Amino acid sequence: MPKRRLSERQRRRIQAIQERRRQRLESRTSAVLDDLDAERDTGAATTGPGDGAEPAVGERQSQQGSVITRHGAHLAIEAADGSLHHCVARRNIGQPVCGDRVIWVPTEPSRGVVTALAERENVLSRPDYAGRDKPLAANLTLLAVVVAPEPPPSGFLLDQYLVAAELMGVRALVVAAKMDLLDTPARRAFIDALAPYPELGYPVCPVSTKGSPGITALLPHLTAQTAILLGQSGVGKSSLVQLLLPDQDIQVGRLSAATGLGRHTTSTATCYRLPPGDAAGGRLIDSPGVRSFRLAGLSQAQLEDGFPELGTVRGECRFRDCRHLDEPDCAVRAAVAAGSIHPQRLARFQQLREGLVR
Ligand SMILES: Nc1nc2c(ncn2[C@@H]2O[C@H](COP(=O)(O)OP(=O)(O)OP(=O)(O)O)[C@@H](O)[C@H]2O)c(=O)[nH]1
Ligand SMILES: [Zn+2]
């Protein structure tokens, strides 16, 4: 497979499409933070006692915080100064999840009440036992999709996660894990098969948790990001979390000492700080429960948004509702024939369209 299929012009167009989407996300983020400030300056500080079951808030100063983890009605909130507090949420504000930005009011040392929940920029959800979407983590900025030689990679799943990242307006990268299982030629072939991704804006980071080569190259991608690892069962996500968060136990201990929460981290999402250094300011949300979500019920236009390279020929097919299958004058198939859209990506698009489009 040739390494470079896209022209420089197309690469720039793809970058522009992704950049616009991220800028929309960033401007939404600052609007959300402004709203939160306004909320803090007006309502929350003067809110009276709750509806009986909640502790009185009184006249204390409300402040911004973010949700580190949630156990039922109990939340661990990190204040702007990094301190941790055990809070309960007002009943009428919805269900805050890990990563949510909130306004909270201290009631006693290390305790407080969450009085407002900011609008989410994005949320990762998973269907519950009744098939309803259950939010698990909010306000992510990076999906790190892990693939490995074992279990054999599913390109279909990989592309599905990448579509999710595009639709959430977040960055994505591909972690090629367990590289120690392959000899040099096999490793090269594995990475070559992922060649279309870097030029679509998804860096590929080969790593191994045995002896940890590659981790140093992965860390800068996590700088200042709020990231989550996704991927099939057994690709090595837990092993990577252990390596990326060498002080995870210490962080859990601190969380538990301050809030009484955080000990039972196996199913609920918890937000950890990546160690200072190459991933400075980065956070990693560890949530075994969200690691393999699925997309569902998209429109064809939404699915097309999930493939940035399709954006480079948007509106150029003869038929507006072209499925890019056998229609005449299809600009997408023309781009495949010309070598600027990878045939495998169109095949995945078709596979996802059949399974997902309403
Ligand atoms: N050879 C090798 N084995 C690895 C590496 N990373 C993880 N493994 C092994 O792969 C298996 C699965 O690893 P996990 O980290 O549990 O995978 P996971 O993706 O978290 O799996 P789930 O929890 O089921 O989603 C374990 O037996 C690990 O020891 C690696 O870099 N090299
Ligand atoms: Zn078409």
Q: Would you give an account of this structure?
A:
- The chain has 10 helices and 13 strands.
- It is of the alpha/beta class and 358 residues long.
- Among the domains are: 25-117, Beta Barrel (OB fold (Dihydrolipoamide Acetyltransferase, E2P)); 300-356, Orthogonal Bundle (Ribonucleotide Reductase Protein R1, domain 1).
- Helix 2 packs across helix 10 (343-356).
- The chain is globular and about 70 Å long.
- The chain binds guanosine-5'-triphosphate and zinc ion.
- Residues 317, 322, 324, 327, 330-332 line the site of zinc ion.
Short overview:
Pfam families: RsgA_GTPase. The protein is of the alpha/beta class and 358 residues long. 34% of the residues lie in helices and 21% in strands.
Average pLDDT, rounded to a whole number, is: 86
CATH topology (fold) name of the domain at 25-117: OB fold (Dihydrolipoamide Acetyltransferase, E2P)
Shape: globular
Helix fraction, binned, reads 25-40%
Quick one: CATH superfamily of the domain at 25-117? Nucleic acid-binding proteins
Weakly predicted, low-confidence segments: 43-56
Distance between the termini: 33 Å
